[in-house]
Amino acid sequence: MPDERLRILVIDDDGDLTTSVAAVLAANGYEVLTATSGEQGLELAFTGHPHLILLDVTMPGMDGHQVCRELQFGYTKDIPVVFLTARTELAHMMEANRSGASAYVTKPFRNDHLLRTISDVLRDSSVYHDDITGLPTLANVQVEVQRMLFDHGQLGVIYVSVGGVQALEQLQGFEVVDDVYRVVGQGLEQARGALIRGDDFVSISSLGDAFLIVLSPSRHTGFIAEEDLLVVKQRLEKDLLERLENELESRLLAKVDLFVGSSRLTQSPKIRFKRALLDAIARATQSIEAERDEIRSRLREEFETVMAQEQLTCVFQPIVSLQDFQAIGFELLSRGPRESELHRPDALFDIARSEGRVPELDRLCRRTASRAGEDLPEGCLRFVNTEPMTMFLHSHGDDFVQEFVEMTPSSLRGLTVIEITENSVIDDFDRMRDIVRKLRAHGFRVAIDDAGAGYAGLQTMVEIEPDFIKLDMSLIRGVDASIVKQRLVRTLHDFCREAAITLVAEGIETRKQLDTLRELGVSHGQGFLFGLPGSDRPLRDAYPPLEAVTPK
Q: Closest by alpha carbon to 337, among 370, 301, 373?
């Protein structure tokens, strides 16, 4: 019986079979959800958060293959699917594999066979294999590493950690972070036989957030020299950074750091293998922490200079009508010194958070945006970001409002839209409403940023009654292929239309996304398809997409 209550979703149009399977699963300690159609099952998959799905192939309406393909978008792509079907031909099994199924159980089946398949799939998906990178986990290769240590007496350990993923995930969603780990994982796997030996082990942690390479010793000396580890470390670091830059640099809105540490694992009759391995990993991570401390110290010094000398600049990204691509305004985005690692805002705010100076940096960003916004074309809206925590620093937000009033010329206040980001919890809506009311009294407008990805969600929209709602890019990515995302966007579109709120889709990057959003009725958008922030091209009245689109 499972150690904890794992949740299994059964999707089958045969009600009797669904009932009997549910009873077997419940008797063996699983929590069970049931659906009798593909559409209902898809909805439960997104709302019920199952750990595994048992899916019938032949169903009226949306069949099992369609459901399985739809599950490949969003977080549900990590849920293993086991097909239940009477179709046993090889072609059917191959189609199941192409659809993304993890296993295949033919009807009629014995209960013990079904339970064993479920157990195997859950174990393999969570413990021994990483779906994102395709690499085995450390638990999978532990026995082989122990044998290698017994044969050689000493091994090298290379530990690879990726930094900056939290900021990247908040900005662009977990799918982009998955792409980062996928590129690193593929790079390490392809390094075997090139930068490292073909029989060296490459694995990933059970949490999927760090990589471990185990190196066999030199065939000539029989041991791992410190300089050998350093050479491998430098080669891997250079290769992985080049891969990230070549494959993902143009897509990433936050800086990704790569840290590589190393140590040696030596056999000892007095120390258990697992303890020795964990100690070797700890020593490798300690070298990474020392490197990170040096970087943080240098960046803190740079941050002090940026703040003291107000070395921020402002770049513009157009917000356009999706009907004729006319620019209705521009989002004003702050940047640090161009040649500095603090050029990107995520790096700036990361240091500010560690120093407890987010409100101060936020204030400087607003002041910089206010000055830069005076140069925009006449009549253009100016979208300026701020964080809820900054608004709450002063009693009733009076100082915050006064700062905005003083920074903004009276002629531009009616054209200024204050974007409230949803990357932190808003727990005092009475206070927030009061601040918004005072801002509006001076002519400012208000937008909810990152809608659909923040903490407060619909409550924030209802409580604040914004002039604009900006859909988070995680909803836009893959919207052309996801029925669930399309339904959610359409629901928000209908809500905004009834409430007289302008809906803006952020992060539009492809023609397919644009066409889908237009079909769903979304009126405005921004993203790389129309213009990159900080582009050298002069500001224009219209920003047609990079691929020609005929407005409807």
A: 301
Residues 250 and 252: their CA atoms lie apart, in Å, by 6
Sequence-separated contacts (24+) of 127-131 with Cβ below 8 Å: 127/206, 130/185, 130/204, 130/208, 131/77, 131/78
* Predicted pLDDT of residue 395: 47
For residues 466 and 448, what is the distance between their CA atoms, to the nearest angstrom?
6
pLDDT value, residue 92: 58
pLDDT reported for residue 403: 83
Dist CA 391 CA 87 (whole Å): 60
Let me know how many helices (H) and strands (E) the chain has, helices first: 20, 17
Between CA 535 and CA 528 the distance in angstroms is: 10
Structure confidence at residue 389 (pLDDT): 65
In sequence order, the 6+-apart residues with CB closer than 8 A to the CB of 185 are 130, 132, 133, 134, 135, 204, 211
CA–CA gap between residue 538 and residue 545 (Å, rounded): 16
Distance, CA of 302 to chain centre: 28
* Cα separation values, 473 from 13, 170, 206, 449, 528, Å: 35, 10, 28, 10, 11
Region for 258 from its dihedrals, namely left if φ exceeds 0, alpha if ψ lies in -120 to 50, beta otherwise: beta
Specify burial of residue 42 (Cβ count, 10 A radius: 0-12, 13-18, 19+): buried
Instruction: Chunk the chain into consecutive blocks of 10 residues (it has 552) and report each block's average pLDDT, rounded to whole numbers.
Output: 69 92 93 92 86 90 86 72 76 65 83 90 70 79 83 92 82 82 92 88 81 85 82 93 87 82 90 89 91 89 94 92 94 90 86 88 88 82 82 61 86 91 65 87 91 61 87 87 88 92 94 95 94 75 72 40
Closest CA to 258 of 235, 240, 282: 240
Distance (Å, rounded) from C-alpha 448 to C-alpha 471? 9
As given in the structure block, the two tokens for residue 35 are 């659906």
Q: Are 371 and 409 contacting, i.e. CB atoms less than 8 angstroms apart?
A: no
The total of other beta-carbon atoms located within 10 Å of residue 300's CB is: 12
Residues 6+ away with beta carbon under 8 Å from 100: 68, 69, 71, 72, 77, 81
Residues 6+ apart with CB under 8 A from 362: 386, 387, 390
Domains present along the chain, CATH in parentheses: 7-128 (3.40.50.2300), 138-299 (3.30.70.270), 310-525 (3.20.20.450)
Tell me the C-alpha to C-alpha distance, in Å, between residue 311 and each of 45, 70, 354, 359, 523: 48, 47, 19, 17, 36
pTM of the model: 0.65
The one-letter code for the residue type at 12 is D
> Of 279, 148, 160, 278, whose CA–CA distance to 217 is shortest?
148
